[in-house]
User: Fold these one by one.
Assistant:
Number 1:
Amino acid sequence: MLRRLLATSLFAAALLGGAPASAPVQAQQPVTLNVYNWSDYIDPYAVDRFQRETGIRIRYDVYDSLETLEGKLSAGRSGYDIIVPTSEPTFSRLVRAGALRPLDRAQIPNWGNQDPALLRQVESSDPGNKFGAIYLYGTIGLGIRTDRVKELLPDVAPDSLDLLLKPENARRLARCGIAVMDSAIDVMPSVLRWLGRNPNSTEPADLRAAEDALLAIRPYVRAITASGNLMDALANGEYCMVLTYSGDVIQAQARAKEAGRGVQVGYVQPKEGAQLWFDMLAIPADAPNPEAAQRFINFLLQPDVMAGITNQVRYPNAVPAARPLVEAAVRDDPNVYPTSEALARTFTVTALAPAAERARSRGWSRFKAGR
């Protein structure tokens, strides 16, 4: 928690300080870059450095859900120059709706620093990689209290979604707390993969099978909530198993160590194959300062800048040259940077047709209601 508080205070100082008197002449009448990003998802030194090097001021707002981001943009004239939507569903929806400005790669010479293999993964959401650069990425899996899960499920494979999705296991874990993030698009594809089915299936029988699997464990699930609510709860020992994003679990692990209360937190990337997601740097079509936005994207894609961000938030970035600059404890953690074997088992999701999306939403609502 100390690290988070320190980062927050430094971030505030960076924003309040602005560009120093020795900044370039244009700093006297600076452009303001309006950034809208997830909370606790930047290195404050990167913000300060960009302002000092360019004379461009940054107004930085945060959100805690994709619904909030989409709501801002759907109203029009959001005033933002940079947004950070997740590849599915928000980024792909914005691409299809014409709500994003195509990137001018001539203005982003650091574009080539990105891993081509990861860019190819994103093409399912952004054909040709026209509208976004990769900011950070991760997987979806289980955050567990390793000591409690081993005690209660000593004979269950420790690297499988069986830990959660087999009702007999969920029943035994219920007394120490199970939570699932409230996101159908992040949970149901993982359940389909565990069932041995296509995680992007739109077949009614497959969607029903995923719903039935979730309903079978619903009596043992204590909470279905926003992913941001799970980090501290896992770190404090409130839950012994959560289904959520890898980086949230890794941050919870760090907070548990800082608290020193003996809570042991680990991350399980499912052996069945984990969902791979990407948070993208994108520019709204009506951005007031698109040139400054492209300059910021180019700045972020520098290896040393991306390394600092990964060190701060413990999510991997897509710039291979940044990896040697990342702290050893972070870059050598396979839960942060999956091994090549684990990465080969990952999958990405694609946008569903409206009818299938409605069917999935109805199934998710029934899971939340428990019927």
Note: The two ends are 38 Å apart (CA to CA).
Number 2:
Amino acid sequence: MKKLFWTFICFALFLVSCTERQAKYRIGISQCSEDIWRDKQNYELRMGTYFHNNVELKFAAAHDNDERQVQQIDSLVNEGIDLLIVAPNQVQTISPAIDRTFDKGIPVIVSERKTNSRKYTAFIGADNYEMGRVMGEYIISCLHGRGTVLEIKGLEGSSPAIERHNGFIDALKNAPQIKLVASLQGDWTENTGYETTRQWLANHQDEHVDLVFGANDRTAMGARKALGNGVRYCGIDGLQGEGGGIQLVRDSLLEASYIYPTHGDQLIDLAVKILEGQPYEKETMMMSALVTRDNAKVLLMQNEELMRQTHRLDQIHQKADSYLRELNTQYVINWLAAGVIVLLLVVIVLSYLQHLRKLAIQRERVTNTIWNMEPITSVEEQQTHEDVDKEEETNASPVEGTFISHFREVVETRLGDSDLSVDDLASAMNLSRVQLYRKVKAMTGSSPVELLRTARLNRAYQILLTTDKSVSEVAYAVGFTAPSYFTKCFKEAYGMVPGDVRK
């Protein structure tokens, strides 16, 4: 019965394992920094896993530190990822880590920022050169082809900073009457934009600035803190939400911005295609758009509605996950065939009934007469067998019922006497040792020694069930001279040690 029970348990687990048909992919995300743009992309990456529940994401952010990003990439690889998505902090410094990852057979998706390594599986991002060029043309139009412009670049050595600057400079070549008073080095942060502009202004107090072009919106807002309201400001990123570029343009804090799409969900789709061997584009350029006061309000309304719906979808997904976890057991059972479920329940019931039967038998053994127990051999019994051949049978047997009752009485009266022997029992019954052996054996199928030991064990069982005496105290109380020997005999008789009775 027990073997059949565990057979069906294993079968059930096998069926459950079959429900997990999809492979589990671990994708490492190496972000060069941590900011609101990347927070949005990371959120979209997590949202993408709602449609690919066979994907697990592992995030790391380097906070614009090349050495840290290299260490993080190596760590992700050592943890056993199946694919790496990386936004390199700088063009050159992160390349060796990307090369090592690719050489180990791990696919690499380079996202948003480029690297000089050619060892990557796919690239996905927007055209930063085009952003810089279009923004340059818009600035020329905004200034009517005449004026002064201050540029604050992005992080030195990063591909977006290089390409946005190049596109911007190329656009200004078509407007000779627009003067670029300076190209200051920034690092994408608002604080650096402020400090860099403030220091430049301290050394160029006589220089007039009509417009500031920041490599991103935060840089432009930093410059605004330093220069004030008398200057126009343009940036790039065009994030929606509170404090994002679209809102800043709508509120006239920025003259214009340029949407750089995050599209984390698109990144996940690409990653899964690569992992599952589906066709994919090696180079994917995402669409982007200029944000001005003419379209900022509409774009903001659309984005706010999109974010609201996205947030609701996220809440629904979380509730669904919670509900599914609660019903996980039911989910497993649904994969079992109806016949298997019924049979499994039958096996459980039968096993439980068998367990109850064993308990009933044990209780019956406690209350049963000492004459129905299985024989236990001993040295004394062997000696009795030898004496049987030497002595002649004498005296006729009394009536069976009277004899058994008398013998039971003698045994129970002296049960706690550890010195009690078969000779003592025979003397109390007015029989010789051999006569007692033969009569008891014929009537019960057991020897006097067996019955004495069985009676002691039965009494011990009752004491263990009804008192809190220790095993040693019980052993001495029923005539055993050593607790260890009592434990041995008890286990042989009941299949468990005395301490298990109370359990």
Note: The two ends are 23 Å apart (CA to CA).
Number 3:
Amino acid sequence: MSPRAASLRSTRTLSMLNFSLADVRDGLGPFLGIYLVGLGWAPDEIGFVMTVAGLASLLATTPAGMLADATRFKRLLVVVCALLVAVVNLVLLLWPQTWLIAFSQIATGVAAAAIGPAILSLTLGLVGQSGLAHQLGQNQAYNHAGNATAAVLAALAGYVYGVEAVFYLMALMAIVTVLLVLMIRPEEIDYDEARGLDKTSHQSESIVNVFRRHPMLLVVGATLLLFHLGNAAMLPLLGQRVAANEVMNPAVYTAGTVVIAQMTMIPMALLAAWYSHKNGYWLLFLIALVVLPIRGVIAATVPGLWTVIPVQMLDGIGAGLLGVATPGIVAQILRGTGRVNMGLGAVMTIQGIGAALSASYAGVIANWLSYEAAFLALAGVAALAVVVWLLLFDRSVSSSAFHGVAR
């Protein structure tokens, strides 16, 4: 069937699915650091357990992308991941032993690795390449709105009942996710489109060929590795600094940081979808990369709680643009290969190296020097991502690949 035959019900449900997944895909996120501070953990210990989650995600992302390409049970894949995250984190709450905390983060990392390619696969299967930029913008806008809503609810629950309430909120959103997945009509998913095959390609390329013939995929991965090495620990570190200094309720503060960022991401995601439809993704990447070093310097050098506003608005700009640009540019580069979701998984694997190391990198510096030194160290790494993008990525790849879809 044509991907354009997908009903409005299925595409709207896909958008709402991204809303509910916002509180599931990343697990406890920054609230984990606050919870562990309350249990008496040091910054470097928290960094190491977050690194465990990152490494688990790192190992699972490429196989998860291959699974998303191969399986016709794409809806079931999302359901299993959502329920897994909810269950293991409830177990963590009830029995907060070190080995269970580590196990819960491994499971969360694996689930997060699978959800990204699964959602891209469903999106391509429903709307095809021609509708991808628009639907990616919708997906990300709803996802960021879901993050902001979940953060507000978490703040209210955390203020009244303590940070433990966040665990139960995540379980509730997992149930909503399952119900929404079941509302997407499986007969409307084009399974060839879902893995990047088109009318000119009849079978998937070999994995070796994908990397040999499409080197810009590796440049995207290397750039995002440096970006996430500088980015992943920044928000958790902000929350930990407040919790350690006992300046205000850390659950409320962390929720505020999330809300500011997510509300900025919504218009940025829609803007990215509009811009990329005519111009490709190169400039979107560059802007997202440039704002991160600025964010780190502000976090390190501007004192006071109000620093969170510019810091998290910059986070919203970067993440809002990359949320659309990353799957979009991978789908463009690998169009016709039948390996789009594997390619996204590979990029997530490479960037996962940076994300996995970020918490430990920043945690050690914060523990031995200061939180301010850690923010500057994160900003320095992020600046390298800008250099790599400017020197190595062939911007004509994004533009030419896009216009090939537009025709």
Note: The chain has one domain: 3-406.
